[in-house]
DNA sequence: TTTAATTTTCAATAAATTTTGAAAGTTAAA
DNA sequence: TTTAACTTTCAAAATTTATTGAAAATTAAA
């Protein structure tokens, strides 16, 4: 069964969707995201309708366990959700279509999971009870790290909290 | 031999440096960067003096091939450089100490390697010669993607080109 | 209740990535 | 030149990460 089109096979569109799913999966792996997870997400985004686990398994040719696990993870990232279809026992899934929201959601999660731990870890490393020039140098390094990391943290925070147009306007002004 | 301190073992500092190298290696893997590469970088950053391949091999207990390969990659990222020490035949390596520069350099490389290909790939996917509501929907999705990705690209560009204090000032204003 | 459909778990397996180490390649001093 | 110190390469091995599939758990209808 073809997931993508409702009737009459429109090859060009199906091809583009196929390619999109593949491309997205490839790119995601650069960013420490599991390839299959990215592909499941792209599939849901491109499909335009809720899909069941079985449909996802078939479209991506992956096992039930794999599909289930990646769907759970995507829900954990807050970028897909279950959708109940009346008269159906199966669970269906849909991806949030708002791309700006998607971007903010990913940024939010990565900030929480990856930036915050860096900050506390660096803060801890600054507390050395030895004296000496080498210690001073190391503490200076940690302070510089903390300084830049905090700035990144602030920028992420700004983006997460901002409305798309507001941020775009501000940034555009800065670029000019 | 201990790489970190010149004389008398100052345990607390050495411990902190050790922990820093380990922590940084761990965190890097979240971002799709090889663990050893991050550790080599952290070691150079923390050591405060140029290190030879042999010293790095010993400190991190890694093979010559591994050390060599990761040093080449770090040079490719533009965040470490060779340093010639007079009277020495061996090559020595140092890490750029300016953390803001480091951040910008990484951003610059990742933008080039990962964001630019995404943009061209999405642009290509928008060219579908079929008509129909499903095609329109997909083209809309690709346009939204392109829109957000271009914004991210612009923000990265802004950060890369900016001086630390200038950017900080602007962002601080936005946050207020 | 039972029963059957569906989801979840997880040990075993497969795939991808990283690391090793020794041989080949370079380079500079003798 | 030769020689020896040093660097690079790369196929094989080790390690890490992802995937499978079948059994266990859960859920809702009968």
CATH topology of the largest domain in chain A: Arc Repressor Mutant, subunit A
Principal-axis shape of chain A equals: elongated
- Computed over alpha carbons, the radius of gyration of chain A is 22 Å
Largest beta sheet: strand ordering of chain A: 1-3-2
Note the quaternary state here.
homodimer
Report on this model:
The structure is a homodimer of 176-residue chains. By secondary structure, chain A is mainly alpha-helical. Chain A has 2 domains: 11-95, Arc Repressor Mutant, subunit A; 99-175. Chain A has 7 helices and 3 strands; from the N terminus they run ααβααββααα. Chain A has helices at residues 11-30, 35-47, 53-60, 64-76, 99-125, 133-161, 164-175; strands at 51-52, 80-83, 92-95. Chain A has a 3-stranded antiparallel beta sheet with strand order 1-3-2. In chain A, α1 runs antiparallel to α2, α2 (35-47) packs across α4 (64-76) and α3 crosses α4 (64-76). The interface between A and B is large, with 58 and 58 residues. Chain A binds a DNA duplex (30 and 30 nucleotides) through residues 34-36, 53, 62-66, 68-69, 72, 89-91.
